[in-house]
Design a protein that fits this description.
This protein is an alpha/beta fold. It contains 15 helices and eleven strands.
Amino acid sequence: MMLRRRFIKNLAGYSSISILGGCSATSFSRALLSDPLSQQSPASKSKRLYVDGLSFIPEDVLDVKASQVDSYIADISAIEEVQLADGSVNYKRTYQACMKSIKEKRAQMLASPNIYQIAETGSDILVAKADDKCAVFFQIQGADCVEGSLEQVDEFHQLGLRVLQLTHHYNNLYAGGALSLEQKGLSQQGLALIDKLESKKMLIDLSHSSAVSAENTLARAKGPIVQTHGAARAIINNARCTPDHILKGIADSGGVFGVFMMSWWLTNDKTPRPEHYINHLKHVRNVAGIDAVAIANDYPLRGHENALASGNNNAVAIQGYDSWWQGLGKKGVLGFDQDVSHIVIPELNHIKRMRSIEYQLLKAKFTHTEIDKIMGKNWQRVLVDVLG
């Protein structure tokens, strides 16, 4: 509570896919030969706990085993076109679309009981690991799905929803979105939503929220708050990236911040490299402390599929995104005036991504204890703290 009060006070002042990804066979072989993971003694070769802050339920269940992920938060959202008063179309995660989706995903997972465990508590991570299963926590990217009534939170919770993102990019009934020009905070309904989610022991996710909404949430909530997927604004000055004072607030709450794979929010360099990803992990550690650093994805377990289909050719993979990006730039949204030429880091866009990140952390001289926390233990701690 002292940390939270300090934060409030501070506000006043502020199919199978090759594991090669985009690497050549020669460079990948060289990496394996020098891989510190392969140099460990037999007694230390047991795999670290891998927890991913955001991915999806794959069509091919074999992807779960191939990824080596022990647990992850799965976005089970579904979108619906909504006609706005001005004639434009918005895409919202409506109650109807998300209710249909969560039931379908439950059925899909229950059909593979030897692979999945639908996780309802943080303790399920180790239970699933002991049974050689993957513990999956259901998440929806945006509280549009419960705009009808807070009683809808109870309905989703009963079906297994354990993580709810307040908004996705744009303003909604409850919160301000990161990409809306009018940077709104939480409404009165939003404050009530925070109370409701905490009463249900559900994890509150600040991803895509405006900085003001994040501040309001951190000031209102009593327990840990997370951002499942994002990047540091101190490195990339973009509205979708998170300011340092929010990183500190998340840490002060006891929460974690997951750094994601979308390379256009990791570097402005023309060629994205693994060190650009590691730089964001370092920044979160330096600003918020090692207990706040975590891994996220925001792509399928196997990676960004259009990129993979092109051999991780970013010039091909980014097609279709550029018009959306440029449109936001014309509206004056922070950071979208920058041209972008990539969407993935090729060396990390493959199904063995978690192992590659672990290798990069060792190369970057993170300690073994730090790597344990980043690769999974920080997520595990918060999920146990909030969900039980």
